[in-house]
UniProtKB/TrEMBL annotation:
Transmembrane segments: none annotated. The lineage of its organism: Bacteria, Pseudomonadati, Bacteroidota, Bacteroidia, Bacteroidales. This is Probable GTP-binding protein EngB. Residues 22-197 form the EngB-type G domain. It comes from Bacteroides sedimenti. CDD domains: YihA_EngB (cd01876). Keywords: Cell cycle, Cell division, GTP-binding, Magnesium, Metal-binding, Nucleotide-binding, Septation. Pfam families: MMR_HSR1. InterPro entries: G_ENGB_dom, GTP-bd, GTP-bd_ribosome_bio_YsxC, P-loop_NTPase. NCBIfam families: GTPase_YsxC. The keyword Magnesium applies. The gene is engB. Its cofactor is Mg(2+).
Length: 197
């Protein structure tokens, strides 16, 4: 898929205020600092489209972007909320859960995983919750340029092994780099194939 147009639409903290539209939505989520904003900017080729986590406030909102006037790219808040205090953590969790469980047009959730790290409990538990709730998701291993190809392969295999312990069937997965644009075509083609499906 070529992206001819990508525009910011709305940020909000309330699922009921998301755009009233039936266009399919592809959402992106991951722990803060996983490389989500960089990936969104790389996919859309719009440098400042998604604000990085260093932009105050942006990381606690659901951000809708419209792409090619055909589908929405949705930037969800990061999880791993330890620093926000209990009340903030609960409201953010509710926001994310409401969007994921209630937004009918949410077609696929991309769960971002930092390819440099050992499998993290918080990510595995989150994916387990997605599976239990029948949420369609796929994985993107980010920052692949930071590893040698051997180490990258090892880390991904370690992750897939953990997932195989949890599930009979593995979710689709992609490997990306915002530095060298690895994975861009595969991820966009995947979205296109579902849209045309
Ligand atoms: P977010 O909090 O998930 O939105 O993460 P950001 O996109 O803000 O990225 C966090 C940090 O990782 C920034 O310093 C980015 O420059 C860096 N980063 C993100 N993606 C990549 C990547 O693919 N390769 C490299 N080398 N650095 C990355």
């Amino acid at each position: 898929m070529e992206i001819s147009n990508a525009e910011f639409v709305i940020s909000n903290t309330d699922v009921t205020k998301c755009p009233k539209s039936t266009l399919p939505e592809y959402a992106f989520i991951g722990r803060s600092n996983v490389g989500k904003s960089s990936l969104i900017n790389m996919l859309t080729q719009r440098k400042g489209l998604a604000m990085t986590s260093s932009t105050p406030g942006k990381t606690m909102l659901i951000n809708h972007f419209i792409v090619n006037n055909e589908w929405y790219l949705v930037d969800l808040p990061g999880y791993g909320f330890a620093r926000r205090g209990k009340a903030g953590m609960e409201s953010l969790r509710t926001l994310i859960e409401d969007y994921i469980l209630e937004r009918e047009q949410m077609t696929n959730l991309f769960v971002l995983i930092d390819s440099r790290l050992e499998p993290q409990k918080i990510d595995l538990e989150f994916m387990e919750w997605l599976g239990e709730n029948g949420v369609p998701f796929s994985i993107i291993f980010t920052k692949s340029d930071k590893l040698t190809s051997g180490k990258l392969k090892d880390n991904i295999n370690r992750y897939l092994k953990k997932l195989r312990d949890q599930w009979e069937e593995l979710p689709p997965y992609f490997v990306s780099s915002a530095e060298n644009r690895l994975g861009r075509k595969e991820i966009l083609d995947y979205i296109e194939s579902i849209n045309n499906g």
